[in-house]
Amino acid sequence: MAPSTPQVITCKAAVAWGAGEPLVMEEVEVSPPQPMEIRIKVVSTSLCRSDLSAWEFHAIFPRIFGHEASGIVESVGLGVTEFKEGDHVLTVFIGECMTCRQCTSGKSNICQVLGLERRGLMHSDQKTRFSVKGKPVYHYCAVSSFSEYTVIHSGCAVKISPHAPLEKICLLSCGVAAGLGAAWNVADVSKGSTVVIFGLGTVGLSVAQAAKLRGASRIIGVDNNPQKCENAKAFGVTEVVDPNSCEEPIAQVIKRITDGGADFSFECVGDTDMITTALQSCCDGWGLTVTLGVPKAKPEMSAHYGLLLTGRTLKGSLFGGWKPKSDLPSLVEKYVNKEIQIDDYITHNLPFDDINKAFNLMKEGKCLRCVIHMPR
């Protein structure tokens, strides 16, 4: 018997109607997947700081946020052969078409076909798959996981082992994977090196975990949130510095306590001024700064040319350099085999109806990751 044609699904979603306004639980209509798309039932989704920043400052509304998610394939569109109903998947905010120049280069994970989607529409036809009472609702980061069901391009999903706990590994959709990859793939942190991390949220602490696993001798965390500083050592940070308690610029502090600067520095805040500080905190000759944060404002950065002339390097990192389909399954297996840690980043587990509480906790700096569990 031929499979039935997918129909419109009506379900619950947390819709943002305006910047900074509380999300509203709405009955939304979710269209069937179009060619090369899949519709998934979201099982667990976590709140990332980029969701918060976009909610506070971006102008595309109404919108369904959320991009760190795990789920189960409910239906597939025409042409999809990689997935079938019932498959367990992670969603990803950048896809992998596996055929474009970037995907085949072996040098990049910035797919030319399924790269960052900023307009809130589907890659394939520049339309939305959500509506409320006939009014279109925009997507976010090609995922929109704050909905019981969502439609994504099949290139923005990764099939994973059914043995991996969906309520944990959703963190590998963005934050934890981004931090691990920044240290391993982008910086290639070496044994015995000194590392400084600006920002001790989930991403920064994932950098710390990765640096520890590589054998870094000193991992210095910089943050002005005392609660985050207190918890950082559990993730591999060997010492913490609070800029508010320093009488000299933080870059000078780092250079003084590291005998001229760190081997590696990571900017995980999303502040372009902090990128300059991170560069200044690196040593001459081989110091490497990696920037991971997404700035809320002031996207332009400036730095004295002498910082680079003396041998420092500045690199950007998107999703830790991981190619989603090629690399994420093995990262999931590392978690299943207890080679990497995810559980300790989850500070709160909340039902879907409490999603606004998750936003408030992140705004107040009282959480790392809030995992939001959808109704079964």
TrEMBL record:
GO biological process per UniProt: formaldehyde catabolic process
InterPro entries named among the record's database cross-references: ADH-like_C, ADH-like_N, ADH_Zn_CS, GroES-like_sf, NAD(P)-bd_dom_sf
Domain Alcohol dehydrogenase-like C-terminal: 203-333
GO molecular function, one term: alcohol dehydrogenase (NAD+) activity
Keyword Zinc: yes
Keyword NAD: yes
Essential cofactor(s): Zn(2+)
Pfam families: ADH_N, ADH_zinc_N
UniProt domain Alcohol dehydrogenase-like N-terminal: residue ranges: 35-159
EC number(s) stated in the UniProt entry for this protein: 1.1.1.1
Enzymatic class: oxidoreductase
Catalyzed chemical reaction(s): a primary alcohol + NAD(+) = an aldehyde + NADH + H(+); a secondary alcohol + NAD(+) = a ketone + NADH + H(+)
Cellular-component GO terms for this entry: cytosol
Ranges that cross the membrane: none
Key words of the record: Metal-binding, NAD, Oxidoreductase, Zinc
Matching PANTHER family: ALCOHOL DEHYDROGENASE, ALCOHOL DEHYDROGENASE-LIKE 6
Quaternary structure annotation from Swiss-Prot or TrEMBL: Homodimer.
Family per similarity comment: Belongs to the zinc-containing alcohol dehydrogenase family. Class-III subfamily.
Protein name as it appears in the record: alcohol dehydrogenase
Organism this protein belongs to: Vigna radiata var. radiata (Mung bean)
